[in-house]
Amino acid sequence: MGRGNRPEHTAPPEVFYSESEARKYTTNSRMMAIQAALTERALELLALPDDGNPRLLLDLGCGSGLSGEELTDRGHMWVGADISPAMLDVAAEREVEGDLLLGDLGQGLPLRAGTFDGAISISAVQWLCNADTRGADPRRRLQRFFQTLYACLTRGARAVLQVYPEGARQATMLTDAAMRAGFSGGLVVDFPHSTRAKKYFLVLMVGSAGALPAAAGADGEEPDDETAEVAVAARRQPRKKRRGIVGALTGSARHPEAKGKGWVLKKKEQARQRGYANIPADTKYTGRKRKSRF
Amino acid sequence: MKLLTHNMLACHIKSVKNGFPFKIEAVRVEEIEADFDPDFLRHIFPRIEYHALREAAETLGAGGLPEQADEASLEDEDFLRAFHHALLEVVLEEGALICPETGRRFPVAKGIPNLLLHEDEC
Fold this sequence. Notes:
The complex is a heterodimer. Chain A contains eight helices and seven strands, in the order αααβαβαββαβαββα.
């Protein structure tokens, strides 16, 4: 994600994905394009047998059903689960084909064993790494989630979970939890050399030791469109007020909005280094305000 | 919620051993039209708990399913139609799902079952 605040830090998912946030997923075409592109890649990694038969798939964190629509387009049946009622309302309004469940992935999936041909999840599972309520233990919730996910898939099925892990520790935490539940597989990182287009896919397999699929863009190429950007808009927050520290790059205590002497000196030095002539010497008057008679 | 989904759902309260099948409390049931796809029906049939499906279909007022069915019945067009109708076209809009073991009630509103657990249940 890189820029802005992570939505996971602002509020729990059922609060963060409020009605206004949910609305974005139906009106913001950029967001919709990103979701579609991520779903397409997840389906590619899911590698369903190419026999044209429709499958029964699971969409974890289905939200407003954008990813589900991609599944419908390919003729699959799907069941989606999400914790945000507002997002599910939007999905119901859009009359998506799949069935919707209101549930918390961290409480386990309310599903019978061996029923689904595969599972996808777009930008949802990293939410489980946070403890949103007192007494919630992310490790236990992840364990419960992966155990029930493992149980509800048929043998040979795959689960492809696109995640935004916060640093290497969280990526390991997710992978470890999945492996402990019995999955084989691992993390596929698309466009690993690009900060903004980098995408993590947790590719999990049930009962088959198949090789991990290759990552896209591993050789340093860039994605060909801008759909590779972040999928969740960070919440706008007011900038922190600058502190007035004299001599720093900000203004004085009396004029905190000014850029200050330090900033002027830095800029003058930069200009000298670039070879500009006629840069005035640094004196005690540098960066001072002129008297009013000027 | 379609009966296909109902057939896949099982109560996930931690102490529950066998949370399948949910009993259905139907308040409003709707019928929608879905594309008839014999390939999908044949693909999914082995995974369906047939008796649970039949019972659920009758609760929602969609009869027509024979008492017994096996792989051979899939060759029968009439059976496939009835199976398709029960599985994909009868939708529970308002009502509740009831856990068979604990009697815990999960409300269904606008076709979406609320399966969130209380803290002491997970």
